[in-house]
């Protein structure tokens, strides 16, 4: 290579080197693009890993996210999730029912780990006495304490079970729905006895309540009927187990005259 060609080649190399340096310099001043995480500390893994010790600790965001997931799967509507004892009035018409609900909430952990199946709460009586509202307040308070709760409108539940039964998947969806209701830590059945009392409904009711009875799981309910009427609607066997699940914490109340069971 003659001196002229060598010089031209060196100039070409220098030009390419300078061009690359300018590109790298420009890129180095570009703002870092942050990934779209809710929590950048753990990158939404909910745990922070120590690669040296090969251990992990829960991130501070985990508790909030667990509670969010519990609320999402609770069956509660947005408006129902806002019900709280903080905003409820204890008046003469529902004082004993209010106190029973508060005591149940305050002692829930001891009740849940106790012996026997009697771990629930049952409110019966006329419309407009606050039965559902009080159990909504219980549900929300326990969800905020990371207790899995399922709030179940029974007419809607059995409509869903009937639809699942005819799905044609060999009972897969039906069994999944029944399993979820049967095994959740706390199940609250609202409006028991209001559903159409067909033989199929009674059978499904029995499967759910009987498993909760056998597993001694906390179970609460509201109904506009007393136990005699409930038995006529959901079957004697199911009603007897529902009674056993709540026998020490039951109240039958109406707008004018309420009494403890």
Defining key terms:
261 residues, alpha/beta, Rossmann fold, six-stranded mixed β-sheet, two-stranded antiparallel ribbon, 10 helices, 8 strands, 49% helix, disordered C terminus
Helical content class: 40-55%
Terminal residue distance: 109 Å
Percentage beta strand: 5-15%
**Can you write the helix and strand succession as a string?**
HEEHHHEHEHHEHEHHEE
Tell me how many strands there are: 8
Strand order, biggest sheet? 4-5-6-3-7-8
The class by helix and strand makeup works out as alpha/beta
Helical region count? 10
* CATH architectural label of the largest domain: 3-Layer(aba) Sandwich
Determine Rg (CA atoms, Å). Answer: 30 Å
In short:
This protein is of the alpha/beta class and 261 residues long. The protein has helices spanning 3-28, 62-72, 95-106, 108-113, 131-143, 154-165, 172-183, 199-215, 227-234, 236-246; strands at residues 47-50, 55-58, 121-125, 149-153, 186-190, 219-223, 250-253, 259-260. Helix content is 49%, strand content 13%.
